[in-house]
From TrEMBL:
InterPro entries: Acyl_CoA_acyltransferase, BioF2-like_GNAT_dom. This is BioF2-like acetyltransferase domain-containing protein. Transmembrane segments: none annotated. Residues 177-322 form the BioF2-like acetyltransferase domain. It comes from Desulfotignum phosphitoxidans DSM 13687. SUPFAM superfamilies: Acyl-CoA N-acyltransferases (Nat) (SSF55729).
Amino acid sequence: MMIDWEVENIYRLDEDLIIRIKDLWRKDPFSSPFCAPSFLEMMVKKVVGKKEVPFFAKGYDRSGNLAALWPLRLDRSGCLHFLQFYLTDYNTALFLPWVEKDMLSQGLARAVEQIRPKTVFLTNVPGWGKTCEAAVQGLEQAGYRCVPVAYDKVPCVQEKDDPDGMKQFGRQFNKHRGLKNYSNRLMKMKGFHFEVDDTQEDINEWVDQFCVAHDKRWETTSTPSKYQDEKIRTDLKDALKAWAKDQALIRFSVHVMNRRITFVVGLKNKKNKDLIYFHTARLPVYNKLSTGNITIRLMGLWMKKNGYQCLDFGRGDEAYKHYFANETRDLWRVYGARSLVSLHYWKGCIEAYVKAKDSRRQLWAMLDSHVFKSRWVRVFRRE
């Protein structure tokens, strides 16, 4: 089969395109929640509000059906990114199961050749699927220099592909006897209830309680909650409503004494085989019982009963995730530039060198904050 690509700047998703994207997303082998049609529609509005330009590279089969899609945006400095710029852990292209990597790469190549960005920066690209390899190949086809960087690790609890895999998956959430005892103590408290909600009901109330818990959890630290900002609260509500509309959202909470004390935003991925542990908050109560870990344990046991095969902890390498995880996955960035004479390209080369070994990662944090983001470097970005 062949794919015909067209690249268009789209400031609003019309009904026909939404229907086409919805059909493509449902047939995509991974169906990432961050490419759900309602969430993409929200991101287009946000990008336009930032005075940046949304681009969609759309691939059609010979029957005129949408077979692949690259959602992109061009920022005001001339750098090309994925469309999704926040409230996202993974950025991917969408494609039908029969679309090969070479076909997918042609879509990004066409977009880069048409837009001619000064630089390209595709971040939060997962190792699973075809997006990362297709992105590198597409940039090379367009004549750009590019550097892929495995910049972070994603912990997860993955069911093994063997006859005992399901039992082992459940054991990952039951292997800590102390946590199991804490769970039993919490479950005996008055009004205990483990809530699992995949509906669109009461999202505003749930998010308001989530934000209060997040604020109280971090108010005594040096990093206060970002959810004190009403705009960020509203964006979270809009995102959850978008995911719920496309049936990608599951909310988890622990109730004690007639109130929610923990909150987790779960997102369905890979045809409902994976669950992404996306956002979390908890009230600073019953701290000695590790209520956050108890919630993860209860989620894992619920997932085992409901046929899920992986709890994906998403971006962030926090220690509590490794308390449960049995493997890690690479998360990628792809740097691209027109030529070798580019600070952006060399930044990618340096990051690739540094991130190749754990012992060098502290060096990268220093370079990124004190060199690449310093004022004297900005003049070199006029490429």
